[in-house]
Each structure stands twice: as C-alpha cells, then as structure tokens.
Amino acid sequence: MHPASPHSSRRGFRRVLRPADRGRRSRSASAVALVLSAVALILGLLSPAPAQAASLQEVTGFGSNPGSLQMFRYVPDGLPSGRPLVVAMHGCTQSASAFDDETGWTKWADAWGFALVLPQQKSANNANSCFNWFQSSDFSRGQGEALSIKQMVDKTAADYGTDPSRVYVTGLSAGGAMTAVMAASYPDVFSGAAVAAGLPFDCARSVTDALSCMSPGSNLTPQQWGDKVRAADPGYSGPYPTVAVWQGSQDTTVAPMNMTELVEQWTNVHGTDTTADVSDTVQGFPHKVYQDASGRAVVESYSITGMSHGQPVDPGTGATQCGTASQYLPDMNICASYWIGHSWGLDATDGGGSLPAPSGLTVTATTDTSASLSWNAVDGAASYRVYRGGTQVGSPSSTSFTDTGLAPGTTYSYTVAAVDGSGAVGASSTGAQATTTGATHHCYTDNNYNQVAAGRAHQSLGYVYANGSNQNMGLYNLYVTHTLEETSPGSFVIADSGCPS
User: Fold this and answer.
1) Would you give the DSSP letter of residue 11?
2) Please, what is the Cα angle at 245 between 243 and 250, to 5 degrees?
3) Does residue 13 have a pLDDT over 70?
4) pLDDT-above-90 percentage for the chain
5) pLDDT at 49
C-alpha cells in the first residue's frame, strides 16, 4: 500500500506521481498513469466489477470537494432514518466498485441496515489511485481529501438521517492509512475505525517517508504517536474513536510492526497502556483487546497468521462468512468486515428479540482447557447463546455452560444472550473473562533457519524437524516459514493454521 501501490512488494515499487495542481496534469503524468493502468490490468491487479455494481450509485454535488474525489454510495432499499453509516475505503489500483461486495460490506449493509459510503480516488490525484495519506494537504482537518470524505458523510447524513453517534470508518492498505487519518482529524465525526494493513496517523509527509514507514516501519514511543493524533485537532476534548487493527503476519508490503505502532498510538490516545487486557483467539487467529480505565474496549488487534498484504474474507453463506476471494482479499476463513461490524454493534437487534440481557454472568471454574460459566435465568427464555470473543460456542437450555478445547494460560471473553420461543435473540450480557490454568502456549513464526537457530527445531540431512514432536517442517533454508507452538517447555508442534491451537 505504498504510495505507488498498496499491493506491491518491496521488489516492485511503482513510483507515485504527486499532483502539482488539482486542476491539470502534465502530458507525461498522463502517459505514466496510462502505462501503469495497463500494467495493472495485465497483471490482474484490478478486481472485477462486483455482482451488485448496479446497486452502487455515484453521488455528485456533495460539497466543495477540495480533494477532488468521487463519492459512491450503497443504501439498502427502504433504509429508515436513524441508522448507522460506514465509510469504507479501497486500496491502490482498486475502486469503490471493487471494494463494496468483495469485502462483504454490502452483505452486512443489507442484513444489519446501514448506509455505506465508498470514496474513490482519481488517477488525476494519484497515478495508482491511492489515497494520499502521506500528504499533509490531504490528511489535515479541513483540507484536501480528508475534508472531501467528511463532506460525503455530511451529504449522506442529510439525505438519510444518519445517527450521528454511529458513524464508522474502515479501509484497506492506502485506505487503511486514510482510515487512521479520518479517525485522528475528525474524532468528532467517527465513533469507531478499523485499519486493515495500514499505517499510524502522520507516519509520513512525503513519498520517501511513506516507503520507509511502510517497511521497515517507524518506531516511535506511544507518547510520540499519541501526540500526533492530539495535534490533528488541538482544540478537541471529546472522546476518540475506538480502533481495530488487522494485519497479516507475512505482510512484506506493510511491515507487521505497523500493527504494534498503531496499537501504541491509539492506546496512548485513549489513556491506557500497551498491555492487552484480553488475549484470546477469534476463529483461530490471535486477538488482543485493550481497555480503558472504565473497562471499555478501546483498541483491538487481529494478527492473521500466514496472511500477506490484504484484508481477509471467508466466502460462504454462514452467519459470519462474507466476501469474494481475490488477490489482496485472501480467503483466510475469517471475514474481517463481519468482526469489524460486530465490534461496532452493527449486528445488534433492532426491533428483533425483546428479551433482556442475562445478569450475573460468572466464571465458576477453569481447567487447562475449559471454562465453566453460569448466569441468572431470564423469564421467557427457551435457550441461551454463549459467545466467546463474539463467536457463538454454545446454545444451552440451562443457565450454565462449559466451554472446552481452550488453550492453557489464556484469557477468553464471554457474553450470553437469551433466545425466545420463536428463535429471536435478545440483548447480550455484560462480559466476563476466564483465564485457563497452566502455562501459556507461546507461538513463534519464523523461517526454518531461524527456528533451528533459536533452538525450537533441529535439522537433519537438509530437513528441519520441530523439537519434541519431531514434525517435518521442510527444507532447512530461509524460504520456508512455519508457526511453532510450544506445548510444553522445549516441545513444539506446527501450528500454521492458528496459534495457540
């Protein structure tokens, strides 16, 4: 997601053309843009038009539009007033029509009832259609592209009566970096932000800085990062958006350390530390939650083990599935847009289940691999749904449940909701946390050469084997990477599909 393209490796940078004038482009810039577009088409970098492209409408006349962006919008038929709004931003070489349905956002807009705004970059602003997240004239409050996006929010709010307390922003790669821009520059507008393979706010102010920020990354203190956000709107004293960060562990375009820097930036903004209050897994992937002094989750991180640059999807018709797999939207068996929308409460019932939230959710016992829960009965409940980290793990008819198959020494978060006789699900309870007994299973992702050097594996006749389990990890070289899980001191198993298992 570097300025030339969010989807290129360090070995294949394409140089960005920075516009000297919004109103005109040089002939050479136009020629380069055409060549780059042709190359992108030849290489298959541009995603095909989605099946529901006809439902995506371009909106003009939405304001002064100083960033000269295009505005597209997807609004479910009959959407009532007072509903949420999500702004979703594409990466370089992508477009609004290549980002709405493929990521799953239109599915959730229909299912949950919210308006979807998709800003689109123009090649006249950036040769590879990247949002200019690294230019102060575009990332500053009241200027350029940032203001154009804010005006899109205002236009939709005026047209559809958006609930101003439920406006959210998300994006992939360059769109992820621009998501951090909007959260920092307009904290009074957005309640939540989700950055996929993006960068901290004000990480760069030039193309050269942007490339360095992306990889190897910029290592600042949490205070330094937080100060950049506070400086974006120095007169602001209200609450800041919650922030979720999604990052592939094998991303060679935007270094994984950027997830750490984003967490440091936004935990500092929220006045909390960088020690996770909850460390669990969501569909097998490491997930951490950082809470403020009141216990409210303000920052989350999702590390998608084995994923390169992109945003994960999980094609299918299941309750948590979404998207269409393509390059930079890999099928990783987890749908990012679902979990992002879930964390924002977009899936909360409105006029559905009327049963109140169960009270008294308590952890009654834990073992190395299980957690037992109990709660108070709800009048009218035919059964209950138990959720671990937002995923349903049980549907007991009684007021107790034991969750099994957990990892030792790991903290898990639970909620419970009552279900009436018609199957309608009521409000969710307040959360409870359970920490299993035993030693934490540590996870180590590295190439085979380094795994041997660290003493987690050994090599014989050119092949590498995990210590303890003796599982074959492949050739002894730098180009084979595995995740090893330490199941007991000095004993490891291959855990590429998710760690801890």
Assistant:
1) G
2) 170
3) no
4) 66
5) 32
In sequence order, the 6+-apart residues with CB closer than 8 A to the CB of 279 are 286, 287, 288, 289, 410, 411
Lowest mean pLDDT among 247-251, 260-264, 291-295: 291-295
328 exposure class (CB count in 10 Å sphere: 0-12, 13-18, 19+): buried
Provide the pairing of β-strand 297-304 with 285-291: antiparallel
**Residue 293 and residue 290: Cα distance in Å, rounded?**
10
Distances (CA, A) of 92 to 49, 139, 151: 16, 17, 22
Read off the pLDDT of residues 108-134 as tens digits, 9 standing for 90 and up: 998 888 999 999 999 999 999 999 999
Assessment of whether the complete model's pTM goes beyond 0.90: no
How far, in whole angstroms, is CA 198 from its chain's centroid? Answer: 9
Q: For the chain, how far is it from start to end, CA to CA, in angstroms? A: 31
Per-residue H/E/C for 420-434 = CCCCCEEEECCCEEE
**pLDDT exceeds cutoff 90 at 426:** no
Q: Among positive and negative, which fits the CA dihedral 247, 248, 254, 258?
A: positive
Which amino acid belongs to residue 317? Answer: T
Mean pLDDT score across all residues of the chain: 86
Determine the average pLDDT of the residues in 173-195: 97
Q: Using one digit for the tens of pLDDT, what is the confidence trace for 79-111?
A: 888 899 999 999 998 999 989 999 999 999 988
Q: How many residues does the chain have?
A: 501
Residue type, 303: S
- C-alpha gyration radius of the chain: 23
User: Where does 166-269 have alpha helices with state H?
Assistant: 174-185, 207-214, 222-232, 257-269
Which of 173, 185, 374, 429 is catalytic? The answer is 173
Amino acid found at 162: T
CA distances in angstroms from 335 to 173, 193, 314, 406, 415, listed in the order given: 16, 16, 5, 22, 20
- The DSSP code for 328 is T
**Does residue 64 carry a catalytic annotation?**
no
What is the per-residue pLDDT across 367-396, written as a single tens digit (0 to 9) for each?
988 999 999 999 999 999 888 866 678 889
Strand order in the sheet with 242-248: 57-59, 70-74, 115-120, 85-89, 167-172, 192-196, 242-248, 297-304, 285-291, 278-282
Cross-strand bridge partners of residue 326: 329
In degrees and rounded to multiples of 5, residue 40 shows phi and psi of -60, -40
Indicate whether 424 pLDDT > 80: no
Please name the residue ranges forming H helices in 104-143: 105-108, 136-139
- CA dist., res. 283 & res. 112, Å (int): 22
Predicted confidence band of residue 5 (pLDDT cuts 50, 70, 90): very low
The Cα diameter of the chain in Å comes to 72
What is the helix (H) or strand (E) element at residue 338, kind and residue range? helix 336-343
Q: Look at strands 167-172 and 192-196 and give their pairing.
A: parallel
Q: Which of 14, 20, 45, 44 is nearest to 32 (CA)?
A: 14
AA letter at 3 = P
Ramachandran angles phi, psi of 193, nearest 5°: -140, 145
